[in-house]
Specification:
By secondary structure, the chain is an all-alpha fold. The protein contains 16 helices and no strands. The two termini are 25 Å apart.
Length: 321
C-alpha cells in the first residue's frame, strides 16, 4: 500500500462525497487529481525543505565561498554543483551569489557550475519528481543535472573567459574567510522552521497553478493528442521544448506538476524534462541580468553549452525510459 493512500482516500471522499461529482466524469478526474497532488506535494515540500534547511544551516554563503575558493578546479566544479542542489534559488536570485563567488576568487568555471545547478536541481524539484514518478526518475534527473552543471563549468573554465566578465566585478574583492557565529541545534531547527514556512509561502501559488493546469490536462486533454506532436519518436520534440522553455520564467514548483500531466498524456519524459530544465536554467530574465555583469559572447557560450547538455539529457531520457 502506498504511503500516499490516505491522501487518495481523502481526495476520493472530497471529490465524490463532499462535492458530489459523478465518478466517471471528466470533471471528477480533474478535481481528484488536483486535490491529491496538491496535498501530497505540499506535505512533501514541507518535510524535505525542513530537512534540507537544517543541512543548509551548516553552509551559509560565506562558508560556501570559503570552501570553493580553496578547491582544485575540477573538485570545485563538483562541490559547486552539489551545493547548488541545497541552495534552491531561481536562476535570477542565484546571480548575486555567483558574483560573490567571483569576487571571492572562486574560479569562473566553478561559479558557472553553481549557476547552472542551483536553479536546475534543488529540493523542490526532487520532491515533486519523487512524489510523481518515484525515486528512479528523481535520481536520474539529479545525476543528469549534475553532469550538465559540472561539464558546463569545466568547459567554460577551460576556455579562459575571464576577460568576458565586466571589469567592475573584479574591482571589489571579498574576504571569503569570515568568522561565523556557531548555532545550536535549537537555532538550526528554528531556522529550518522559519525558512520552510517562508519557502512554502512563496511557492504555494505556483504549486496550485501548476497542478491546476496539470489537472485540466489530466481530465480534459485527449490521451493521444499531445503524443502525436511530442512523443519519443519525434526527433524535433526535445530541441523544440528547449526553445519554447527559454522565454518562459518559472521555478520547479510551477513547472514539474505539468511534467506529470504531460507525460501521462503521452509526451516523452525526456521532452518534458528538457522543457523544465530550459525554463529553470535558461530563462530570458536570467540572461538580461547576466548582461549587466558579462559580455554577450559569454552569455551565448553559456546558453549554448547548457542548452546542448539539456537536449542530450532529453534524448537520453527518451531512449532509456
Amino acid at each position: 500500500m502506498s504511503i500516499f493512500y490516505p491522501i487518495q482516500l481523502l481526495a476520493d471522499w472530497l471529490t465524490y462525497s463532499v462535492f458530489d461529482i459523478a465518478k466517471q466524469s471528466l470533471l471528477a478526474s480533474a478535481v481528484n487529481f488536483f486535490i491529491f497532488d496538491t496535498i501530497k506535494i505540499l506535505i512533501l515540500l514541507s518535510v524535505i525543505i525542513f530537512a534540507v534547511s537544517v543541512i543548509r544551516s551548516f553552509l551559509p554563503p560565506e562558508k560556501i565561498r570559503f570552501i570553493l575558493s580553496h578547491k582544485n578546479k575540477y573538485t570545485g566544479n563538483v562541490v559547486a554543483s552539489l551545493l547548488g542542489i541545497i541552495t534552491p534559488f531561481c536562476s535570477c536570485s542565484a546571480i548575486p551569489l555567483f558574483l560573490g563567488f567571483v569576487q571571492a576568487g572562486v574560479p569562473l568555471g566553478t561559479t558557472f557550475s553553481f549557476l547552472v545547478a542551483s536553479p536546475m536541481i534543488n529540493e523542490v524539484a526532487l520532491v515533486l519528481l519523487l512524489g510523481m514518478f518515484g525515486w528512479k526518475i528523481a535520481l536520474i534527473y539529479i545525476v543528469s543535472g549534475l553532469v550538465i552543471a559540472i561539464l558546463s563549468g569545466i568547459i567554460i573554465g577551460k576556455m579562459k573567459m575571464e576577460n568576458l566578465v565586466e571589469s567592475f566585478v573584479y574591482e571589489s574583492s571579498i574576504n571569503a574567510k569570515t568568522d561565523l557565529p556557531s548555532m545550536t541545534w535549537s537555532d538550526r531547527f528554528a531556522y529550518a522552521r522559519d525558512y520552510t514556512w517562508d519557502i512554502i509561502k512563496k511557492v504555494w501559488i505556483y504549486v496550485i497553478i501548476g497542478i491546476g493546469v496539470g489537472a485540466w490536462i489530466h481530465g480534459y486533454v485527449p490521451a493521444d493528442f499531445l503524443a502525436q506532436y511530442a512523443g519519443s519518436g519525434k526527433w524535433y520534440a526535445v530541441p523544440l521544448a528547449v526553445l519554447i522553455g527559454i522565454p518562459l520564467y518559472s521555478n520547479a514548483a510551477g513547472i514539474i506538476p505539468l511534467v506529470g500531466a504531460l507525460t501521462e498524456k503521452g509526451v516523452a519524459m525526456g521532452t518534458t524534462l528538457a522543457f523544465m530544465m530550459a525554463v529553470t536554467a535558461l530563462s530570458l530574465p536570467e540572461f538580461m541580468i547576466l548582461k549587466r555583469v558579462m559580455k554577450t559572447r559569454l552569455i551565448l557560450i553559456f546558453a549554448g553549452i547548457v542548452g546542448v547538455g539539456i537536449m542530450f539529457t532529453g534524448y537520453l531520457f527518451n531512449w532509456i525510459l
